[in-house]
Amino acid sequence: MKYVVVLGDGMADYPVEQLGGKTPLQAAKKPNIDALAREGLLGLVKTVPDDMAPGSDTANLAVLGYDPRKYYSGRSPFEAISMNVELAEEDVTFRCNLVTLSDHDTYEQRVMVDHSADEISSEEARILIEDLSKQLSTDEIRFFPGVSYRHLMVWHNAPLDWHLTPPHDILGQAVGQHLPGGARAEVVEAMMKKSAAILDNHPVNKKRIARGLRPANSAWIWGEGKKPDLPAFYDKYKIRGGVISAVDLIKGLGACAGLTPLHVEGATGNLQTNFRGKADAALAALRDGLDFVYIHIEAPDECGHRQEVENKVKAIELIDELVVKPLVAGLQELGEPYKIMVLPDHATPLSLRTHTTDPVPFIIYDPGAKKEPLQQSYDEASAADAGNYIGEGYTLMDIFLGSGQEG
Ligand SMILES: [Zn+2]
Fold first, then answer.
1. Which of 21, 54, 127, 275 has the fewest Cβ atoms within 10 Å of its own Cβ atom?
2. CA-based nearest residue to 167, from 152, 150, 184, 181
3. Is 81 within 8 Å of 254 (Cβ atoms)?
4. Which bin fits 172, alpha (ψ -120 to 50), beta or left (φ > 0)?
5. In angstroms, rounded to a whole number, what is the distance separating the alpha carbons of residues 33 and 30?
6. In angstroms, rounded to a whole number, what is the distance separating the alpha carbons of residues 201 and 189?
7. Which residues have a beta carbon within 5 Å of ligand 1, which is an ion?
8. Ligand 1 centroid vs 64 CA: distance in angstroms?
9. Which of 338, 323, 332 is nearest to 369 (CA)?
10. How many CA atoms lie within 13 A of 39 on its CB side?
11. Using alpha carbons only, what angle is made at residue 327 by residues 323 and 331, rounded to the nearest 5 degrees?
């Protein structure tokens, strides 16, 4: 049996006025995914417990079959592992975003304009992070450049009691209300303020502004964590798997679970990503002997954070046309029994511009389990009507990989 998960990050949403009261999943033309929904097991799954933050970290951990309550030890360690940064027991890792803040007199008054600094290129970002590193590193604190706006800070012997705010949660707000809290908060606050002083007039940013792009004019530190300890996916399920993603978080999560990283040229994490390449890479890996592939697609989530209604619909349509359609065709060609699961990790409602813990719609499609087609489509309301509810998200993988289609 071959198993493929197609995860559209943040696809689920609320009804949107601009879409005539439909959700993006309802508004999108997605005949291939809807065909799976008609003949598959459709339902809602609660990926993130209400008492945990609905990040892509906790949510993808659950979708991969790991109880986030038991295994979650922070977001940035997964990214560190994907970036091949060695972590000691005493290391605490932090996400270091390059963000765009508005121009105001004090740091506190400055508004979080863009958590991604216009999705700054990795090349430009590397120069900025290296310059920050020269001036902000200490014997215990180090910086590592990552992809686009996503970078890493590692602090040896740091405490773990932090109140740090994800920058995508405070878009449009003054940062003064959201400065670091915790025992050593003053260190991180001073570092963020100093980063702004270094970056405000940096030549890289002057050139970006001249090109009509937002400057990356501050570092923003959040997402603290320690090295996770996950049992291997193979030990849990006895199948060999791989993971396809553009983002270090998911690559690192896959690495921690012992899944093979599958590289796709042109995988970017945005709407310009190589959708078709992900389907092709998954099929190639299954042909080469893997039995499970986890395809993560970041684009709908980014559109949710950016409040780009039409682009979010478009991202879903591209997943349907360029990932699911060739995947189904390729799996049929392969001639082995297969199952496909389609779902988001969490909702990223356009109206909120951030993630929620709402249950999300899933499909488990098993062409071997014959079933009368139902008149249902893949969306939030249809999935609620279907009556299948999985309260503990991490158990969904057992159902997907198990033999039956129990709900
Ligand atoms: Zn996510």
1. 21
2. 150
3. no
4. left
5. 6
6. 20
7. 9, 56, 301, 345
8. 13
9. 338
10. 14
11. 175
Contact 317, 30 (CB under 8 A): yes
**Which residue bears the tokens 């997907």?**
400
Task: List domains and CATH numbers for the chain.
Answer: 2-72+229-401 (3.40.720.10), 81-225 (no CATH)
10-residue mean pLDDT series, the chain (407 residues): 98 98 98 97 97 95 97 92 92 97 96 96 97 98 95 96 94 97 97 98 97 98 93 96 94 95 85 91 98 97 94 98 98 97 98 95 93 90 96 97 56
CA-to-CA distance for 323 and 184, rounded, in angstroms? 45
pLDDT of residue 266: 83
Find residue 215's DSSP bridge partners: none
Q: Is 147 helix (H, G, I), strand (E, B) or coil?
A: strand
Radius of gyration of the chain (CA): 21
d(CA 146, CA 153): 10
Distance (Å, whole) CA 250 – CA 57: 8
Compute the distance from residue 346 Cα to the ligand 1 centre, in Å. Answer: 6
Q: Give the contacts of 138 (CB within 8 A, at least 6 positions apart).
A: none
Residue 270 to residue 303: CA distance in whole angstroms: 8
- 162-163 vs 181-182, strand pairing mode: antiparallel
Whose tokens are 């592939």? That residue is 293
* Length of the chain counted residue by residue: 407
Q: Find the helix packing angle between 203-210 and 122-136, rounded to 10°.
A: 150
> SS3 of 162, please?
strand
| DSSP label at residue 140 | S
Q: 11 C-alpha to center of ligand 1: Å?
A: 9
Which residue has tokens 């033309």? 29
Q: How far is Cα 15 from Cα 27, in angstroms, rounded to an integer? A: 10
Report how far ligand 1's centroid is from the alpha carbon of 297 (Å). 9
pLDDT at 267: 76
Which residue, among 195, 165, 160, has the nearest Cα to 177 in the 3D structure? 165
SS3 of 323-339: the string is HHHHHHHHHHHHCCCEE
